[in-house]
Structure formats: structure tokens, C-alpha cells
Amino acid sequence: MAPNRSPLRPSEVNSFPIDRHGLVHRSNAVQSGHTDAQLARAVAAGELTRVMRGVFTHRSDRTPEQAHRLMGIATGSPDGSVVVSHQSAATLHRLEMLRPQLRRVHLTVGNGVKAHRTAVRHEHEAHLADHEVTTIDGVLVTSLERTAVDVARTTSMGFAGALAVLDSALRLGADRSVMASMMLTARRGVAQARRALHHADGNAENPGESWSRAQMINAGLPPARLQHRFRSSTGELLARTDFDWAGLLVGEFDGMVKYQKLLRPGETPFDAMRREKEREDALRRAGIMVIRWTWTDLERGRVVPMVRDWLLRFRLVTA
Hints:
Elements lengths: L9 H6 L7 E3 H6 L4 H9 L3 E5 L2 E4 L5 H12 L7 E2 L1 H8 L11 E5 L11 E5 L7 E4 L2 E4 L1 H11 L3 H14 L4 H7 L7 H10 L7 H13 L5 E7 L5 E9 L3 E5 L2 H6 L7 H17 L3 E5 L1 H5 L3 H11 L6
Parallel strand pairs: 5-6, 11-12
Antiparallel strand pairs: 1-3, 2-3, 4-5, 7-8, 9-10, 10-11
Helix pairs in contact: 4-5, 5-6, 6-7, 6-8, 7-9, 7-10
Protein name: Transcriptional regulator, AbiEi antitoxin, Type IV TA system
């Protein structure tokens, strides 16, 4: 029979000490007079969520990246013994990644320090120069450029994953030349990262667009112009498009996250979708063909054949 636990009082939850990141540390809770039983009741009731051993946070709707960011903050250290790195550092920098694996917190320890791996912690042994380390929210983290390069080298999504994180890094202001210099050493995955950096473009607005470009690049399709603004004969802005070829063919990646970003105050995603439809109609009236694809199309390999078919119709490629 399950133990008879007394119900959790609201005052117990609200009185747990919270740090500036919204984390409840067991050590602080116990020091302030709370008990492990109270913490356990709060977790069982769904009022607290366990971030990692001895660290909790109040219930909230978080994306996997936001939840992992808290894990990185809780695991990181300000004393230099470990530096949050790889995918974990990417969540702290708010780099966008293509299907990251966020089960374990990634940390870099110094050369000569034996790296360990557990179910929730993955340590990497490497030397980090001073300019490759920064501080975010009081935690030591690899720099924006070093983080992007590390993810590009190790992503499970291959060239597409490398392109996505490097596109995102450029959007955030990363220095391309600094990243190139970090790729001069022969490390695992560096060839993939170099190729992705050659094609990286900060005008790509999300990982879906990056994955689209990666598939087109691998297929040898002509490069598209990104985020071009089409205007009417009177100068009125008709649309800013994801991809276009020669001003004749426009390609748009559709994802719900995209529509969330387009929301205006008081709008629903469907309102944003309706405005997108009106924008598309304006382009078609101007004689421009618009094609669209989704995550499912990318997963099933349908994007390249569709784009190639329309490029052939406009004689922008040869058979």
C-alpha cells in the first residue's frame, strides 16, 4: 500500500527559496527549514519539477531547450572547474539547433582531467583558451563561436545539423573568421563543420530553413536568394520570402513555430496563417510562383524533387 502522505499546503510550495534563475536547491530549502519530505510531496503533486539531483523548479510550460538551459545553469560552475559546452552551452546562448539531443548536460574539463560520462552528464576533455570561455547567468560557458563549432562537429544530424547551428550563430552575431580559425585543427567532425561554415548564412531564420538548404545543397540545386523583399510597381512591400530563384519561384518553409513568431498582439496562429495566405496571393498576382513545404516533407525527402520540378519548368536548371 502506498504511504499516506499529507496534502501539500500552498504555503509550503510558495515558501521554497528560489534563486534568480527560478531554481530551488535542496541545500537552500533545508537550510531555510524545509524537509526532504516536503520537497518530495511537491514533486509528487507536480508543483515542483526535478531539474537534476538536488535541484528543482516550479511547474511551468517549458520547451525542451528551456528545460535543458536550467540543467546547464544548475550543473555549471563559476570557479572554472568545468565549463558548460556543446549543446548545453547552445541552450544558454539561445542558439537554435536541428533536433538536438538534450538528455545529458555537456561540460568541458581541462586537459589531463579525466572526463566522465553518466546518464545525465557528458564531460569532454579539451583545452579552452581564455577567448573561448564566457560567462552567462553566472556560469562559465564556451563562447558563442566555440559552442557553434563544437555542436557543428558533433551533431547527430550531420551536415544539416551543422548548417543549422552555424546559421543561427551568424544570426546572433558570431564572427565567421573566428569560427574558421577554430576549425583549423584536425578534430572529429571538423570536415563537416568546415563544409557547413562555407554555406552558412545568417539570413536563414530557423532550423527548418537550414535543413531545407542542406538538402538542396546536397542535391546540387542552384542556391536560392534568402529573405528577399518583393515590392509592387508602386514600391509597396508585397512579401519577404524564405527562398527565391531569379524572382520567378518562391519557396516557403511552413512550421508552426514560424507562425508563432509572426503573431501580432491578440492574434492566433491561424490569423498569422491567413495573413501568409494573403501575402502569397499578392505574389501570385505579380506572376511569381509560390511553393510550400513542411517538416514532414523534409523528413520524407519530398522537398528536393518538388523544387527541382519547378526549376525545370522555369528553365533554371537542365534535366
